[in-house]
Amino acid sequence: MILDDIHRGIKKHKKRLRIGRGVGSGRGKTAGRGHKGQGQLAGWTAHPAFEGGQMPLSRRVPKRGFNNRWALTVKALNVGDLDEWCDDGAVVTPESLAALGRLKGRYDVFKVLGDGDLTKKLKISAHRFSKSALEKIQAAGGEAIVLPRKAPVIKNVKKKAKKKM
C-alpha cells in the first residue's frame, strides 16, 4: 500500500455537477431526465402520493367510522396513583409528573380521576378534575388548581342578547 493512495479521490471542495451542459459532461442532452413523459419538463415534481395515474393507495383503502381530528387528547391519572408516587405536602403539576416519568407523550389536557384512595395532603394542578377526585382531594386536606387553557368552541349555541338601557 502506498500512503499517497489513502487520500486519492477525496476532495475538500467538490465541484457540483452541472447537468445539461453538453454530451461530453456525462449529463448532457436529456440531463438525466430520460426521454419523453411528464418528468422531462422543467419545474415538474410528482406529488408524494402520485402513482402514475393509478388510483392512489390512500383512496383505495376503505374508510370506516368517524375520526374527530379536533378532539383534545386527554391524559388521565388516578388520585390513588398520585398518593403512591408523591410525598405528603407535595406540589403536583404536569411538569413534575413528566420529570418523574409518569406523564409521557403528547397531550392537550391533563385530567385527574377519582379511582383509589388519597391519604396525603397534595396541591394538584391539572386542566380537569372528576367530581370524585375533587371530593377526595378536599377530604384529604389538599388543594385542586385548575390550569388555564384555551376555551373550547361550542357551536350552535346562541349568545344571550345584551339588554339595551
Task: Explain this structure.
With 165 residues, this protein is α/β, with parallel strands linked by helices. The protein has a domain at 74-146: Ribosomal Protein L15, Chain: K, domain 2. Helices cover 19% and strands 13% of the residues. It contains five helices and six strands, in the order H-H-E-H-E-H-E-E-E-H-E. The strands form two sheets. Strands 1-3-5 form a three-stranded parallel β-sheet. Strands 2-4-6 form a three-stranded parallel β-sheet. The mean pLDDT is 87.
CATH topology of one domain: Ribosomal Protein L15, Chain: K, domain 2
Question: Approximately how much beta-strand content do the residues carry?
Answer: 5-15%
What's the CATH C level of one domain? Alpha Beta
Structural class of the helix and strand makeup?
alpha/beta
Number of helices: 5
Largest sheet: 3 strands, parallel
SSE arrangement:
Elements: H1 3-6, H2 57-60, E1 74-78, H3 79-85, E2 91-92, H4 94-100, E3 109-113, E4 123-126, E5 128-129, H5 131-139, E6 143-146
Parallel strand pairs: 1-3, 2-4, 3-5, 4-6
Which terms summarize this structure?
5 helices, 165 residues, Ribosomal Protein L15, Chain: K, domain 2, alpha/beta
Short description:
With 165 residues, the chain is α/β, with parallel strands linked by helices. It has helices at residues 3-6, 57-60, 79-85, 94-100, 131-139, and strands at residues 74-78, 91-92, 109-113, 123-126, 128-129, 143-146. The mean pLDDT is 87.
